[in-house]
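Course assignment 3, question 2. Fill in each field.
Student: A.L.
Task: Predict the tertiary structure for the chain below.
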Amino acid sequence: MNLSTAENLTIVDHLLMTTRSVRKRLDLTRPVEPEVIEQCIEIATQAPTGSNRQGWHFMVVTDPAKRKGIADLYQKAFNVYLRGREQAPTAPRANEPNATTQRRVTSSAIYLAQHLHEVPVHIIPCYEGRVETEPAFAQASFYGSILPAAWSLMLALRARGIGSAWTTLHLPYEKEAAQILGIPDHITQSALLPVAYFTGEDFLPAERIPARNVTHWDGWGQQR
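Answer field:
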């Protein structure tokens, strides 16, 4: 297949521009077939990985009690995060999305925290090794070996009518999550993806800062 043809580019571009963080539109009542999850993970492992180490692992959590345990950790961290935002709001940044959009995102995040235990599948992308004390370049290489695979997983799910959201708020309690799931100490958890079929027909491109505002040509602040 020649992906550069106009027809295929339209499909690929639509997929890339409409893979949203799905929270309120996750279908909490419809199960996700294990075979579909396995197929999407198979696709994800075609992503690039540093030095071709392929040290990735994907923890798929469907057991209700374990989902509840992970969700409780997430809610605990989310409460701290939300209080911090309310007590010490950050100063506006240049090109920051408008307040209405930010309120919608906050409302959506609160909903997910309250209902995470009901989401039928949690997927935690992991990688072999620990890099907390390593220099920045080593950490960049490490996470650069799992995050592309996790994003490919989200794209593969999206193409099959399944929504997900990139979350990291359980990570302050990574050790506790590892105990619930039996994850070894030398394995690093990189994210938590709540996964479910989404309701409704499709998604639209999100409101974003214009790309030219954040693109620098041959020097910081220089535009073409």
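Instructor remarks: The beta strands are 56-61, 121-128, 162-164, 187-189, 193-197. The chain has a mean pLDDT of 93.
Grade: pending
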